[in-house]
Amino acid sequence: MSRRQFIKMLLSFVGVIAASLLGLWKWLGRDIEAAVEPPKPIPPATTTPNLASAPAAATTATASTTEPLFSFMILSDTHVNSYAAEQSDKLRKALDDITSFESKVETVLITGDITDSGTESDYREYNKIIKDYSKKLPPLHANMGNHDYYSIWIDKHGQWDKDAMPNGKSDAQSRKAFISQFKMDQIYHDFYVNGYHIIMLSQEAYVQEKPEVGEGAWYSDAQMAWFKQKMEPHKDGSPVFVMIHQPLPSIGQDGATHQLIRAKEFRSILKPYSNVFVFSGHRHENFRAGQHYTPESFHWFHNASVGRTRSLSQNSPLTSQGLYVQVYSDRVTLRAREFMDRTWIKEGNWSIPLKRA
């Protein structure tokens, strides 16, 4: 074999080996790539996840706290006056908002001073307004404030006459007019909505019968006993909503003029119970100023006024305010509302956790 032939044969042999090695590398490399290739993304699940393994309490809480169980609007101090169009216009603004509200309103409460003077003409003006909303307005309940006894200051010509008080009228007539207006058996009452209890306490006398009370809220022994009895179902910790008109004095004191007079007994009745919410009016204080929530053994909220909320300055626009309340299984939320422009008032926004029994 010549040298040329030997080299040619050697090169052929090397080529065969190289081709074999390349095939082997490709075959092995395919498995190596398969071994190191990153896993493909797992597509999102399209079925409902199995909640059986989730904590039962968390699942229950999510389901029960999403939607309110009861929603209502509290108005106070509407001060309807047959001779003053401004208060009537403000009440209409409030009712315009409520009857086209963004959320459910299942009842409306007015916590006293429905009228300016409790006269027949004031109640006629109030009824004229309410009639325009009767088809859309939810059930409405009210209690008496001091102004609902003011007919004793008004003479037969509709004029204020302090010197001639009681101008041939009486506190008993004021109570009778209120009872007739709201079709009640007595001036204080209670009721339930969606299983939630609302108690409406009412001022029972004014200066014609009891000069010593001034502008304060006097409750009789009968009303206080009734109130105590009505609170008893709430030993289980269920929420209860109590409406008064005049605010409370400092803790440990009874009230005087412009306050709830039998305040020590009132607080004593409420002390054994959790999840009690008390609402007062009378002060007309703007939700953009002042203190509107006072935590005691109960939660006490001070409402503003529909008819006469105090302006923050001389140049402030007209204002008409109320309080929107929503009850959930684990909390109560409260938001202050400006009815003149249908907006929420940021300074009045609370969420109160409910205590577990």
From TrEMBL:
Per the record, the coiled-coil ranges are none
Source organism's superkingdom?
Bacteria
Q: Keywords on this record?
A: Hydrolase
Residue ranges occupied by any Calcineurin-like phosphoesterase domain in the UniProt entry: 71-285
| Matching SUPFAM superfamilies | Metallo-dependent phosphatases (SSF56300)
Q: Name one Pfam family in it.
A: Metallophos
Q: Where is the composition biased (Low complexity)?
A: 47-58
Q: Where is this region: Disordered?
A: 39-58
One MF term in the entry's GO annotations: hydrolase activity
Protein's name according to its UniProt entry: Phosphohydrolase
Species classification: Bacteria, Bacillati, Bacillota, Bacilli, Bacillales
